[in-house]
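Researcher: Let's do a round of design. I'm pasting the structure tokens now; please hold your answer until I've finished.
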């Protein structure tokens, strides 16, 4: 991995987790502590990242209109979640991945009779009032940063489920690197779900195209549906046509 790519991925990782230690960055990116210190210093000089005791954190004070962008992003995520939930039918057995977009699906599933397998703690809590949603937790070690269960001891249990449709999240996608994410701890679960599910639905907002993170858990051609808020570039439109992937653009007027 070249230096500029690694620095961009470190920035994405920090933004996803908000606060991380230098030791964690060393482990995740498999470089020396001196290398991490130099990379972090470049990010600090950009102004979006600040040093804290033992590590680094997102510097919200320097992000202009941060609240406005977050609100806009939240609306886009809801549009994508609604479009995804429209594919869920009564009686389906589905998997809901950990992610802020997939979390928004609860609101649009609450009137359906479905079985939901998930490692997303927030999704479990939000679905609690709806008795018609049969929720099964994957269990495992709880990762507080992503609010998800990771590192399952019994992967055979997950592989035994017959999943009709898996609704997956991603930090970024490219044609070359496929569907990627920042946390290596979730990789095994995501890979197992993709292999077991009949249909794979990828929920991403438009700015995830052309970006990639540390881990690839799925080749892009293995995805059945890509649900996003804006039509991607011509390269991705041609790729989806070639590989029979249905590209779904959320209706932001509904």
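Researcher: That's everything. Go ahead.
Model: Designed sequence:
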């Amino acid at each position: 991995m070249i230096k500029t790519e690694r620095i961009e991925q470190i920035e994405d990782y920090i933004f996803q987790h908000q606060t991380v230690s230098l030791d964690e960055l060393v482990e995740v990116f498999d470089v020396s502590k001196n290398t991490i210190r130099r990379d972090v210093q470049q990010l600090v000089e950009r102004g979006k990242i600040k040093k804290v005791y033992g590590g680094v954190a997102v510097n919200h004070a320097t992000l202009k209109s941060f609240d406005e962008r977050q609100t806009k992003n939240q609306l886009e995520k809801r549009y994508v979640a609604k479009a995804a939930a429209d594919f869920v039918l009564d009686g389906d057995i589905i998997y809901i991945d950990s992610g802020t977009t997939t979390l928004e699906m609860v609101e649009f599933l609450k009137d359906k009779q479905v079985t939901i397998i998930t490692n997303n703690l927030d999704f479990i809590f939000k679905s609690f009032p709806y008795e018609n949603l049969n929720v099964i937790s994957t269990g495992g070690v709880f990762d507080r940063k992503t609010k998800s269960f990771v590192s399952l001891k019994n992967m055979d249990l997950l592989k035994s489920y017959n999943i009709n449709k898996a609704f997956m999240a991603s930090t970024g996608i490219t044609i070359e690197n496929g569907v990627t994410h920042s946390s290596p701890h979730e990789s095994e679960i995501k890979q197992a779900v993709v292999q077991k599910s009949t249909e794979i639905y990828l929920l991403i907002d438009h700015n995830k195209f052309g970006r990639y993170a540390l881990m690839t858990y799925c080749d892009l051609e293995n995805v059945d549906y890509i649900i996003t808020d804006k039509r991607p570039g011509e390269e991705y439109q041609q790729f989806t046509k070639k590989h029979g992937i249905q590209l779904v653009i959320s209706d932001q007027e509904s």
